[in-house]
Amino acid sequence: MPRRSDLRSVLVIGSGPIVIGQAAEFDYSGTQACRVLREEGLRVILVNSNPATIMTDPEFADATYVEPITPEVVAAIIEKERPDALLPTLGGQTALNTAISLDEAGVLEKYGVELIGANIESIHLAEDRQLFKGVVERCGAESARSTIAHTMDECLAAVAELGYPVVVRPSFTMGGLGSGIAYNESDLRQIAGAGLQYSPTTEVLLEESILGWKEYELELMRDRADNVVVVCSIENVDPVGVHTGDSITVAPAMTLTDREYQKLRDVGIAIIREVGVDTGGCNVQFAVHPETGRVVVIEMNPRVSRSSALASKATGFPIAKIAARLAVGYTLDELPNDLTGSTPASFEPTLDYVVVKVPRFAFEKFPAADPTLTTTMKSVGEAMAMGRNFSEALNKALRSIDKGGVALHWTGEVPSAEETAELIEESRVPTEGRLLQVQQAIRGGATLEQLFEATAIDPWFLDQLYLIQEIADEVAAADALNPQVLARAKRHGFSDAQIASIRNLSEDTVREVRHAYGLRPVYKTVDTCAAEFEAKTPYHYSSYDTETEVQPRDRPAVLILGSGPNRIGQGIEFDYSCVHAALALKPAFETVMINCNPETVSTDYDTADRLYFEPLTFEDVLEIYHAELAVGPVAGVIVQLGGQTPLALADRLAKAGLPIWGTPPEAIDAAEDRGIFGGVLVAAGLPAPAFGTATSLAQALEVAAGVGYPVLVRPSYVLGGRGMEIVYDAEQLADYVRRSTPVSGDSAQVFSAPVLIDRFLDEAIEIDVDALFDGEEMFLGGVMEHIEEAGIHSGDSACVLPSVTLSRREIERIRTSTEAIARGVGVRGLLNVQFALSSDVLYVLEANPRASRTVPFVAKATGVPLAKAAALVMSGQSIAQLRADGVLPLVDGGHLPADAPIAVKEAVLPFKRFRTKEGTVVDTVLGPEMRSTGEVMGFDVDVPVAFAKSQAAAYGGLPTSGKVFVSVADRDKRSIVFPVARLVELGFEVLATVGTADVLRRYGIAATVVRKASDGVGPDGEPTVLEMITAGEIDMVVNTPNGQGARADGYDIRTATTAIDKPIITTIQQFAVAVLGIEAIRRGPFSVRSLQDYDAARRESLAASSASA
Length: 1109
Fold this sequence. Notes:
Layout: E1 9-13, H1 25-39, E2 43-47, E3 63-65, H2 71-81, E4 85-87, H3 92-104, H4 107-110, E5 114-115, H5 120-127, H6 129-138, E6 146-149, H7 152-162, E7 166-170, E8 180-182, H8 185-198, E9 204-208, E10 214-222, E11 228-236, E12 249-251, H9 258-275, E13 280-288, E14 295-301, H10 306-315, H11 319-327, E15 354-360, E16 381-387, H12 390-400, H13 417-426, H14 434-443, H15 448-455, H16 459-477, H17 483-491, H18 496-503, H19 507-516, E17 522-525, E18 539-543, E19 557-561, H20 572-585, E20 590-595, E21 610-613, H21 618-629, E22 634-638, H22 644-647, H23 650-655, H24 665-672, H25 674-684, E23 691-696, H26 697-707, E24 711-715, E25 725-727, H27 730-740, E26 750-759, E27 765-773, E28 778-789, E29 799-801, H28 808-825, E30 829-838, E31 841-848, H29 855-862, H30 866-874, H31 879-884, E32 902-908, E33 934-940, H32 943-955, E34 963-967, H33 977-985, E35 989-992, H34 994-1002, E36 1008-1009, H35 1025-1030, E37 1036-1039, H36 1051-1059, E38 1064-1065, H37 1068-1082, H38 1091-1108
Parallel strand pairs: 1-2, 1-4, 2-3, 4-5, 18-21, 19-20, 19-22, 20-21, 34-35, 34-37, 35-36, 37-38
Antiparallel strand pairs: 6-9, 7-8, 7-9, 10-11, 10-13, 11-12, 12-15, 13-14, 15-16, 17-18, 23-26, 24-25, 24-26, 27-28, 27-30, 28-29, 29-32, 30-31, 32-33
Helix pairs in contact: 1-10, 1-11, 2-3, 5-6, 6-9, 13-14, 14-16, 15-16, 16-17, 18-19, 20-30, 24-25, 25-28, 26-27, 32-37
């Protein structure tokens, strides 16, 4: 069936901010869909609140709404745009839940909007646990025995029948949020209580435990002609009990017999038919009993999921692209396979390689969190690798994670018998380090039976780890590194660094020996058909095989290094800049992308001209450069756009002779090294807060005393504020040093790298600047003003563009200072500078000569394609030339018109995912270490509305009535009078603790006194404030931390508020803006406007002002 002729416009709902459980994979699928639908001649309308994704760039849709994804806002967009159809299957659970709400509210029917890609009935059949149980039964398969519950009493009754342990799964949530395994009644009350709250239908499923069973997934697609393809089978290395997003996974499934695989396949196909998904993809999860082979269907997602992105990248089969085409009427047999060009999409992919995905965690950001892996997803990113065998793919994936202590290692003494027994015992609990514990136990002589009994990891996977150990033993025992030993180690994925550590050599020595033997990797092609047909798309992975498939080329190549797995501090904002570079440079160069993140747009096979799905390590990048140099000229290598991962390689790559484009590595060092950078500032006459560096505790105490407390302490070379703290006295500084250095031995209280100690500017306004510099001229991209005061990491604080309170004179000072830094450092390309304005002095906090996380936000807010311009500047074009070509406007971001729309960026924080061992949420106080996973943007005519939109998009919005609890530190008591008085005028009831209530009363503001948690319940049963928050009686909490230390008074108040999803405000500046935001909401519903409309109005305004000048 050809494309439907009755559809002219389609509304696509995105997935909103990056959160744990719903990350960049949905931006990848949504971007794919938008591109495909436009190719089909349809008008595409997109709504997504996330500014960091390339999906919300104006060129990817005809009308792009960066607005909160709420049923009310999407209804307003439907009313304005009148789309023919709504496609909700590519934006994760957010899009699906919004579509259901719009349908239930009658909005779709009212405006004649058809749901495509899925129907409401199918969504309910798959998402409603009880209905899905019926589907499974009708397909002749079985589910785990289970009961649905809506109250805690029903949960307790169900357990009486099912017995402990029980698995708790809430309905309609994402990434296993609110789910867990209850071993006793107190667990059940804790997990099911949270699950009932997080489920939009207050419904949980309690099911018999299938812990320790093997877990599999099938990724399927079906069209309206009932063609079904199984795109990919995926197997979890961890048994059931660990969320699939937190488990190491393998494709294709490794431990199924053909008969078992065919059974899963038959059940999967029967389920997709019974549910009625007929225009798109879905994934079905199974558990198989390791001894009896009993198969249980766990769940199904009737939409593109996290696994779909993995399956797409693993096979080269573009699931989202095909799902979008199926949704508008095509059938699988009508769609050509992009990679071969000669086979249809109805051909199932065949793999002649192994794919391994490894999750990346961020527990170091939440020290109080329980690191046990459960059915609630906790990983923040993932890396994927391909190899000719499992061990090669596993080793490559582990080194792709780009985090110390993750890859298998053979350093240190072999574990003793006692240590080995301890490792076996530790491996019973699934954690981030479990694979390493198993590998070290194997080193220490543990048997396969012991490890299987402890972990329930399939013996086949354990046997592969024994194979890796055998090869390590061979490498260690060989008289010399002969070609045979080296080749075998490389074929099983050992890096030069691993071989070097086993042989006590340097990595460079191993490389020289390997090159002397002529041992280099070859690059194979992902072709979906195991080489049965010729592949037309250069999508490569490395292997120590015999024949390379890298094709010759005439045009010069540019290698773009991606950012690797998502993590806190290095998210899709960096992928955004890499994608822009690939697209901008395509006309003049052959663009070559190197990355290992399956969730992103950069690893789509048609983003760059060539894609290498490889780890971002020095060894891997060097080999790709060599392979590309062998087939044509290489003009340059871009390391400036992918964040700290590629930046850390810049120096070594330059020394190895690679042509680094943009800011030279020595200039990058100049900005990172405080001594050199201090010199640049002095030469430019720019003040910086007093600072010093220290390598030991004694030095640190001396520097801090000289600089004056409070001080900001941090290690050099960090991204996302890793390891930063604000320290208020000598005792706290000693505590920081103890936590950051080895505890005993010669190196006690000595830092491995110098630590920077800056004077912390209390109560300063923090300013973020993104600029471009070509060596001659600077283009100021944007000046952002933070809503919170200095001391909160820029990635976590809300900021406004254009700046609201800075005068023209201050902006000119900022411009002059930024240009002086760019010249002094030697920047070519992007530069991000952070300033603090305190007592009318503009201090320079830091400068980063690279793409920053605010580049996409600035581009959306100002309509200027900063990342594209940066790539062109790095290729040698001047800013003057880019202005002449129309890439950059004549006027830069320092001269925005007075009526320019206001953009507010708000961070989205993952606190409710991370609980302590006791089950309470970790503390929500923000500080200099970054903790947010994503961001949203509110865009409107003024700050109050834009801020209100940002809150609606990030947390479900500000309250318009009800009770507000206010408890602030002494230093803030004077500042709260006006905002609190306004809340009372608006009809809110203000609750406060004694001290704050006294201050308010003296100013004539009525406040109800409530009991502190430490006071306990009152004589007449009066509840404490904590109990009131937990009971949901308080609609917003304002609590500024008093003094220092995470366990200060407000800790319990802040964590309780976060746990029940109510707005929590921890700074006075944010409180004032929030009150204005509440007033804005009460004036009426949000108006909506597309970025394209804003850009057109901006162009007209600039044209008018230049005509009158």
